[in-house]
Automatic annotation (TrEMBL):
The keyword Transmembrane applies. It comes from the Eukaryota. The chain crosses the membrane at residues 425-449. It holds the Pfam family DUF247. It comes from Lactuca virosa. InterPro entries: DUF247_pln. This is Uncharacterized protein. Keywords: Membrane, Transmembrane, Transmembrane helix.
Length: 455
């Protein structure tokens, strides 16, 4: 055997042995654990709408740390950290030590390896980003003094971009980091009725979504894996936030995953199907109305032939929020898929601009996109390449009820056709008879009319 050939094989064997022992970096082993909750967007979703997942003015966490175009807010993070240090009288070292003690838990929260950050670098990032966020929420909540000339509040375009950036799936730090920094930076003398971190976060985003204070209070003790998950959960009824059952890796369970079709990948059942679009449901007699003062946009009902859907403002904030929530629900196994279900349901209703127009007439859709067609295309794109279990979701009963209503109407129409129009010639005969009857009525009218109106 050629000596060079032997050396080449030995080198390859050595390389392969080394590779086998290396832990994955792009999809870390921890990605399937409950603790792992901050993901890179899957390429299939990223390609559909790249801008929805990329921060525009602020970086939070390691994935986009150091990007040049995000330096505009980076400088203000240090200003906010200084405000917090001056107010609490605690040193930066105090906060650094707390975060260093949590670093293993922090690293396990990310689906990709963040080993490029040393212990100190990771702690510095978490302290800077975390303190910036909790100081921001305190300033907006009027718990601490705010500079009246602070550009974050005075420059009109900053706040909308900031709110969207804080709810991007790749732009997160663990909620337990925020909670810890919030707790240790509280005033030494606090009152029982002081707002919680969760309440302050909801109050911050309420400048965009404008929900009742009762709703904010209902979720004042709700927690999430990070800001995106927490805000997502604040729209879900607490009774429906039960943990997802442990994954069963039996043959049947695995088959459900690998046999899902492409595009909208749905786990079908004979008893539950997708619903027809709005214009077809209207023909069947379904009416569309906006719900009266719902607690959440998720609260959809079907009563007495009326589909009641909470009004939703389709704008840049909600479109970004939906896209990032769906991406999170697709990546994180241990959560209910409420936003995915909502998006699929609304996508079924709105196939075309005509469907969107019907919902707009019912005051359900407030269109800030511009054209109705853009909303229909948006929901189509969000639902693309999404795995969805139609047999196990919070709107399962609505899929069944609306299909039963639609099928009942179709049966009635088919019954009339089979009874009175059993063949093509029967249909032509009935049409001819109707035409002759119409002509006879017209002839009678024109015969009688001159008698009563001679002029």
């Amino acid at each position: 055997m050629n000596q060079n050939h032997v050396i080449t094989i030995d080198q390859e064997v050595k390389f392969m042995n080394t590779q086998m022992k290396k832990p994955p970096k792009l999809l870390h082993k921890s990605a399937g654990m409950d603790s792992c909750c901050i993901f890179r967007v899957p390429q299939s979703l990223f390609e559909i709408n790249r801008e929805a997942y990329q921060p525009r003015i602020v970086s939070i966490g390691p994935y986009h740390h150091g990007n040049k175009h995000l330096e505009i807010i980076e400088e203000h993070k240090w200003r906010y950290l200084n405000d917090l240090i001056q107010r609490t009288g605690k040193s930066i070292g105090f906060f650094m030590k707390i975060i260093v003690s949590m670093q293993d838990q922090i690293r396990q929260s990310y689906s990709e390896s963040i080993d490029q950050f040393s212990t100190n670098d990771l702690a510095k990032m978490m302290v800077l980003d975390g303190c910036f966020l909790i100081e921001l929420f305190r300033k907006v909540g009027k718990l601490v003094q705010t500079d009246i000339y602070d550009p974050i509040f005075r420059v009109a375009w900053v706040s909308p971009f900031l709110m969207r950036d804080l709810l991007r799936i790749e732009n997160q730090i663990p909620f337990f980091v925020l909670q810890k920094l919030f707790d240790v930076s509280k005033p030494e003398v606090s009152k029982p009725d002081d707002p919680t971190l969760s309440y302050l976060i909801l109050e911050f985003f309420n400048y965009t979504v404008d929900r009742k204070k009762e709703i904010l209070n209902q979720h004042k003790n709700t927690e999430g894996k990070h800001l995106l998950d927490f805000f997502r959960k604040s729209f879900i009824n607490p009774k429906e936030q039960n943990p997802v059952p442990t994954f069963d890796i039996s043959k049947n369970s695995f088959q459900k995953l690998i046999h899902l079709p492409t595009k909208l990948r749905i786990n079908y059942s004979s008893s539950v199907k997708l619903i027809p679009p709005a214009n077809k449901l209207k023909i069947a007699g379904v009416k569309f109305k906006a719900s009266h003062e719902p607690d959440s946009f998720l609260d959809i009902e079907f009563r007495n032939g009326v589909l009641l859907i909470p009004q939703i403002n389709m704008d840049d904030f909600y479109s970004s929020f939906f896209l990032n929530c769906v991406a999170f629900e697709q990546c994180y196994f241990h959560c209910r898929k409420h936003i995915t279900t909502y998006v699929v349901f609304m996508g079924c209703l709105m196939h075309t601009s005509t469907d969107v127009g019907l919902l707009a007439e019912g005051k359900i859709i407030e269109n800030y996109f511009g054209k109705d067609k853009e909303i229909a295309e948006f929901f189509k794109s969000v639902g693309k390449d999404v795995a969805f279990d139609i047999t196990n979701n919070y709107l399962r009963h609505l899929f069944i009820e609306l299909n039963n209503y639609w099928n009942g109407w179709n049966v009635s129409v088919d019954g009339i056709k089979s009874t009175y129009f059993p063949s093509r010639w029967a249909s032509i005969s009935v049409f001819a008879a109707f035409l002759l009857l119409s002509l006879a009525v017209l002839q009678t009218f024109y015969t009688i009319y001159p008698y009563y109106h001679p002029n």
